[in-house]
Design goal:
34% of the residues lie in helices and 25% in strands. The protein has 485 residues and is α+β, with helices and mostly antiparallel strands. Strands 1-2-13-3-4-10-6-7 form an eight-stranded mixed sheet, with no helix packed on it.
Length: 485
């Protein structure tokens, strides 16, 4: 995919919204209009055309994303496909499979109907397009066909049966049109900027936390990560919080961070304090992804790295901000150790990342979080508390943020880890190797006690001065000071 620097323009007129991507490196390569059926608003009619560069032979394929984030069968939503030649005449085609069509000749324009009825699986709500009772999300990566290489697009949304549209912010163009989205029915919008990155928060539906509280929580977390890793390259962060389109029990949520836009689909918690705490938990995790992987120009699959590290960094930040207890951080490490030890199908962390959506997701998250914890302790121990995993992440971000050239993700991350002698064994045994994680040496270094065969993790009764230094860096003293207030 070409790397294009572009900006977002939104124009609202009577009956029509136009989303236009303006590029400075190339012309548009797709133009489409999206129409909602007034009688059945979950059905959208899409028609458009590819604009191929001069000298490039058009493809005979019309292909769509048929699986995303483990959600299968997306091609089944498509019907009434029509293809047309440059002279406007119909072009016949073969349905290779739902969502993949092979034309009998050259075509330049196309049309189809897509059913945006929310999938029964609630996990899909934050990751694929849907519409329900006036709310919805349009993810252009699954709503539009896939050309081989996208430079830009003009999208017309005709008719306004669903209310106001709010479109996610754009940033540096590290990713192309593939990660753009439109959000329907954003009824509340709150935004501001500080000396750091701008933040916009949109709330739809009824929640036990207020709009200003949600924004305040997000602002504090975003600023904390910027202090740790450096200012975001993006022009601003957009957070949208939307209720589930299907019935779910309390406390459920799904989240998706694309480019500089965070989408949270959630059910509320029973009490206000729980609702605010859950929001903070989600934002700590998702905002980490603004830096990794979204803020760096690294190519390739490395979920094994940034997902596990997001869990660990979110927990550690939660302790330092007083949002969770230090014991909560230890409990997360405990659960990770249990999951790692009982895993029947032993895999390296890297291999688990490849099978994330085929049954290895929980194992990948747990092992990745443990690796992040071990790396932090090992670096703090080797440097006598002067350098930890935050320093490694900051260096990685600063070296590979745009406009840095694209680099191979796995090689870059492994090289960054191996550049610290104390992390080489962790890489060999637990990232590339599949052995059960032995936390003993790291517990001893950090002033924590853990007994094989149990899940009880606690701070030593009399930690040494060096252990106290590491415990402080992990957030132990921050929590103790909050308790004393």
């Amino acid at each position: 995919m070409s790397k294009i620097i572009h900006r977002l323009a939104l124009v609202l007129t009577v009956g029509t919204a136009i989303l236009q991507f303006l590029t400075i490196a190339a012309g548009q390569d797709i133009e489409a209009s999206i129409s909602f059926d007034a009688a059945k608003p979950n059905l959208v009619h899409v028609e458009g055309k590819f604009i191929w560069p001069s000298g490039v032979k058009p493809s005979l394929n019309l292909s769509f994303v048929t699986e995303y984030a483990g959600i299968k069968g997306l091609g089944d939503r498509i019907s009434n496909v029509e293809l047309k030649a440059p002279d406007g005449k119909p072009v016949s085609y073969l349905t290779v499979r739902p969502g993949d069509y092979l034309a009998s000749g050259d075509f330049v324009s196309w049309s189809y109907t897509m059913d945006l009825t929310p999938p029964k699986d609630p996990t899909a709500a934050a990751h694929v397009s849907w519409e329900s009772q006036g709310r919805g999300i349009l993810f252009l990566n699954d709503l539009l066909p896939e050309p081989d290489d996208r430079a830009g697009a003009i999208i017309h949304i005709a008719g306004e049966p669903l209310g106001t549209r709010r479109f996610g912010n754009k940033s540096t163009g590290v990713t192309g049109l593939r990660l753009e989205l439109a959000v329907l029915d954003q009824r509340a919008l709150y935004e501001t900027s500080s000396k750091k990155s701008a933040l916009t928060l949109s709330l739809s539906g009824e929640w036990k936390f207020s709009q200003t509280t949600a924004f305040s929580v997000g602002r504090e977390i975003l600023d904390s990560y910027e202090t740790s890793f450096g200012k975001l390259s993006a022009g601003g962060t957009f957070v949208q919080i939307i209720p589930y389109p299907v019935d779910v029990s309390v406390g459920n949520y799904e989240a998706d961070t694309r480019d500089s836009t965070i989408t949270i689909i959630s059910s509320d918690m029973p009490f206000e304090s729980q609702s605010k705490q859950r929001l903070a938990e989600i934002l700590r995790h998702e905002m980490f992804h603004l830096w990794f992987p979204n803020g760096v120009n690294l190519k390739g699959q490395y979920d094994w790295f940034y997902e596990g590290f997001a869990i660990y960094e979110a927990e550690k930040l939660g302790v330092s901000m007083g949002q969770i207890r230090f014991d909560d951080l230890l409990s997360t490490v405990e659960r990770g150790l249990v999951i790692d030890r009982v895993q029947g199908r032993r895999q390296s962390l890297m291999d688990a990342g490849k099978d994330r959506f085929d049954g290895a997701g929980q194992y990948m998250y747990a092992r990745g979080m443990l690796v992040a914890f071990l790396c932090d302790v090992a670096m703090l121990d080797a440097s006598k508390g002067k350098q930890g995993i935050d320093d490694l992440l900051r260096d990685l971000y600063q070296k590979h943020r745009p406009p840095a050239p694209e680099a191979d993700a796995e090689k870059t991350v492994l090289d960054a880890l191996r550049s610290h002698k104390e992390l080489q064994t962790i890489v060999d045994l637990y990232i590339l190797g599949s052995g059960v994680i032995d936390p003993g040496p790291f517990m001893k270094a950090s002033g924590l006690e853990w007994t094989t065969g149990t899940t009880w993790l606690k701070v030593s009764a009399k930690p040494s001065s060096r252990q106290k230094t590491i415990l402080e860096k992990l957030g132990y003293n921050s929590w103790r000071k909050l308790l004393q207030k």
